[in-house]
Amino acid sequence: MSPQLKFNWLDLVSLLIIIRVIYIAVSKGFVVEFFKIIATLAGAFFSFQFYTGLGNFFLKYLPFLGEDVASLLGFVLIFSIIWLLIKYLRTILTFLFKVEPHTVIERWFSLFLGILRTSLLISLMLFGIYLLNTEYLNRSSESSLSFHFLRKFAPKTYLFMANSLNKVFPAIEIDSQNLDNFL
C-alpha cells in the first residue's frame, strides 16, 4: 500500500529550491544558466556513475560511517567537485568574454533551463535521501508530492546519458546498482 500523498517539509524545501533557482536563472541570464545546467548534468552523471566506488573507498578507511552515509558522502562529494570545477570555468570564461544585457527571449530560455535544473536538483535531493535509508526520511519522501512527480527525473537522465555515451564508448559500464530499487 502506497502512502497518501501530501504537502510536507520536503515539498517546502523543493518549493524554496524552485523559487530560488528560477529567480537566479531569469536574473542572471542564459549564459550563466547554461553553465549551471551543464554543471548539474555533469555532476549528476559522474555522481551516479562513481558514488558506489567512492562510498566503498570511504567505507574501507572510515568504517564507522556505515554503508548508507559513505554512499551519500561519495555522491555529494563527486557532485560538488564537478559542480565547482564547471563554476570556476564559467567564472573564467565570463571574465574573459563580455556578456551582453539579457533580452526577453534569453530570459525565457533561462527560465526553461532553470526549470530543468530545478527538476534535476530536487530529484538528486530525493535520491540522496533514499541513500540514507532511514525509516523517517523514506516515509517522508514517499508521501511527498515532490517524490511522486520528480523522483525518476535524475536517475532517468543519468541512464539516458550513460546509454548514449555507451554507444560511443562501449567500455563505459553503467552503474545502476541502487537505481533499480529507487525507480
Oligomer: single chain
Mean pLDDT: 91
- Which structural class do the helices and strands define? mainly alpha
Number of helices: 8
Distance between termini?
17 Å
Order of helical and strand elements: HHHHHHHH
Largest beta-sheet characterization: none
- Radius of gyration, taken over Cα atoms and rounded to an integer in Å: 18 Å
What is the percent of helical residues?
A: over 70%
Query: Spans with pLDDT under 50 lasting ≥5 residues?
Result: none
Strand content range? under 5%
Instruction: Tell the overall outline.
Output: globular
User: How many beta-strand elements?
Assistant: 0
User: Please, how many domains?
Assistant: 1
Task: Explain how this protein is built.
The chain is mainly α and about 180 residues long. The mean pLDDT is about 90. Helices cover about 80% and strands about 0% of the residues. The protein starts with 8 loop residues before the first helix and ends with a helix. The chain has helices spanning about 10-30, 30-60, 65-95, 105-130, 135-145, 145-150, 155-170, 180. It has one domain (about 10-180).
Secondary structure blueprint with pairings:
Layout: H1 9-28, H2 30-61, H3 67-96, H4 104-132, H5 135-143, H6 145-150, H7 153-168, H8 179-182
Helix pairs in contact: 1-2, 1-4, 2-3, 2-4, 2-7, 3-4, 4-7
